[in-house]
Amino acid sequence: MPLPTLPPTERLVLELLLNGPDFGLNLVAKADGALKRGTVYVTLGRMERKGFITSEQEPQAAGAIGLPRRIYRVTPLGKRALRAWATLLRTLAPEH
Amino acid sequence: MAPPLPGARLHRLLLHWAPAAVVRDVVEPTIADLQFEADRAPTSLERKQVILRGYVAVLRALVFSIEPGGAIRTALALSALCAVGTVLVTAARAAHVDGRLLNSALLAPVMLTPLVLRMLGTTSSRRLFGGALLVAMLTPAFASGLALDGAQPVWMRVMRALAMLVVLTPMAAAAAIVVGPGRETFPKRALTAVALGGSIATAAFLVAHRPYGEQLSIGLAMTPFYVTLFAALFGLTLLPLLLVVRAFIARPRLLAIAGLICSPAPVIAGSYLDHGTLTACLDALRHTPFAFAVSSLPFVIGALAVGWRLPR
User: Fold this and answer.
1) What is the interface pTM, i.e. ipTM, of the complex?
2) CATH number for the domain including A32?
3) Would residue A52 count as lying in a domain?
4) Which residues lie closer than 8 Å to A34 by C-beta, 6 or more apart?
């Protein structure tokens, strides 16, 4: 089985979601240019398939029109993956 | 009557045509954001901007969702650019059009390639350059510009290919650096300044030539040629002068004024290209000063922009 990987954008998404569940557009705003609105949902969809995050539709108020937005939250597996990645980076860091 | 819900029609269309997983995971959240932002836009103009940005985001999201992976997507994009370039060059050659139009047909795909690859997610400057150079060389090859049909001896074909490589490599490199994701390095800022100056000079040139009855569509079709020409003239004549000035002056406004003062350099170079000799340039200045001033105006405006955007 191939080892799961954690690209920089996915790492950033996990770090941002550690502060609490959020919408894709807010993640783009908080990422300061590192995430783009045209690609953020492709990344989020991929992460959801990996099991790092889950999502649900925002409950809509009565009479609201338009598509409901999707809210994303990090899963325990996502938190573990982020911790493991940080440990790996510390382990591989050159010793002085 | 309430304005139509933006993206609703596109959503309905994609429900039928795009894979269900892509619609659920990518398209619907992007359209939901578009509708959310459009609903909260304070002015009509901002609402239009939000909607435009949202549609671009949906388009990008769809492109990035295409399976299989990135390599095939890039190959498809490069093939499409080569095909479009080949059709343009072949049509221009068959119609025996003005050389400026033929050159534009050749240059447009080279300029567009790094942009398209960036939109598809390529972040490596080397790949952007490689893609642009590949399109630059394959387009004339497919359009018989390199005489691969055997009409010329081998050594002539090789020399012609080498000449095109020498001319097109710096252009592909410049396009890749300007569009590339690299940090704001000195070469990037200098090239961006020259490209911006070239674009502004081209726009001024097209506007200045409108009263002479030149069709706008023809002028726009020549844009790649003029942008390259102006950028090359600015890069070869104005940029070295401004780099010397930059050692003493750092403020953008003063550098823009320095660009204005140095603008005779590209004007003379451009006029020399037009008239062939310096004596003919001086004759043109003496006999038709108004026409000379009008033809110099794009250089002056472009030089201002180069100075203003030059790295500090």
Assistant:
1) 0.86
2) 1.10.10.10
3) yes
4) A8, A9, A12
